[in-house]
């Protein structure tokens, strides 16, 4: 849900940012600190959840 809200706001989300939020939400929900959001964890979730690499261009004035 957080990911979709951020994307709808056109916020850039990096892999490390996504891993950090996943760990945060896991800890909030389970009250445990034993989750590791590795690169493999992220790679396995990209396709089923529609996560893809995007390039953002910023306009300069």
Automatic annotation (TrEMBL):
Tell me the domain of life. Eukaryota
Q: Where is each HTH CENPB-type domain found?
A: 1-55
Under the GO molecular function aspect, what terms does this record hold?
A: DNA binding
Keywords annotated in UniProt: DNA-binding
Q: Which GO terms describe its cellular component?
A: nucleus
Task: Name where it's found.
Answer: Nucleus
Broad class of where this protein is predominantly found:
nucleus
Q: Which InterPro entries match?
A: Homeodomain-like_sf, HTH_CenpB_DNA-bd_dom
Note the SUPFAM superfamilies from the entry.
Homeodomain-like (SSF46689)
What is an example of a Pfam family matching this protein? HTH_Tnp_Tc5
Q: Is-annotated flag, keyword DNA-binding?
A: yes
- Spell out the protein name for this chain: HTH CENPB-type domain-containing protein
